[in-house]
Description:
Blueprint: H1 24-44, H2 46-61, E1 66-70, H3 72-89, E2 96-100, H4 118-127, E3 135-139, H5 146-158, E4 161-166, E5 179-182, H6 197-216, E6 220-221, E7 224-225, H7 233-247, H8 251-260, H9 265-274, H10 278-287, H11 292-306
Parallel strand pairs: 1-2, 1-3, 3-4, 4-5
Antiparallel strand pairs: 6-7
Helix pairs in contact: 1-6, 2-6, 3-6, 4-5, 7-8, 7-9, 8-9, 9-10, 9-11, 10-11
Amino acid sequence: MEDLNHLVTEQRNERTRDLSELSIHEIAGIMNLEDRKVAESVHLALPIIGKAIEVIVKAIDQGGRLIYIGAGTSGRLGVLDASECPPTFGVDDQTVQAVMAGGAGAFIKAVEGAEDDEDQASIDLQSRKLSSLDVVVGLTASGRTPYVKGALRYAKQMGAASISVTCNRNSIVSLYADHAIEVEVGPEVLTGSTRLKAATAQKMVLNMLTTTSMIKLGKVYQNLMMDLNVSNIKLKERARNIVMEATGADYEIAERALTLANNHVKTAIVMIEAETDVLMARKALDETKGFVAQAIVSARSSLREQV
């Protein structure tokens, strides 16, 4: 039987020993107080988080994928973050993926024992055709989940970059990761319930991994989402507002540019900012790999050369 008592995430919180005797207001207050510690713990891990993001950006830029893998709450957080990337950043559903112990059904209903199957992780990654171009991010609050350890071990065998996100220092899975992100948030308010502070810490880290990576891949201009898939009336209005915010153009100009650009936000912005046509705007975006600021400079330069 494995002894988990040494794991901070499994220890009792001395501040909440009388939790069951507290009032509703007192419980909410102490939970809020404990949650305040999470951001500071994440802050301490920023250097290694930054290195992990560099790895992810390089991998995706070279045609690789970001693959989250985990069990229980940690696995569900991976599914959540991956599923939000296509609508937010316009990437396809293969670029950022999530693999969960027990399969897709485990997102809704726990599959008992799935997290203990170390060998199944390699089988699951084989089904995704893991390659050396990819990045595997193992998610486990405890830092000892066999399924995640198996995943990181297989990633190394395949030559894929590996990252771990845990909430215990010097964890087992950290030994199998190229970059080990360890965010220790202390004992939970409710002993062992890592869906609380540990999950909050992991979600904050995942927010940084994908959002910062997508920014550095040209999916954002200023602080605005660029690769919006304009598929309905609401999103068309949002695209128009983005163009207006980015360029200072009025409603009619933004509408006209988007119509000419076939609702492609980046093209519309370059057209307005560089005062050019659709073809030149698209050419500039192609030349700069979709980075709007660079495309505007390129389009303006091309116009000057034509004069």
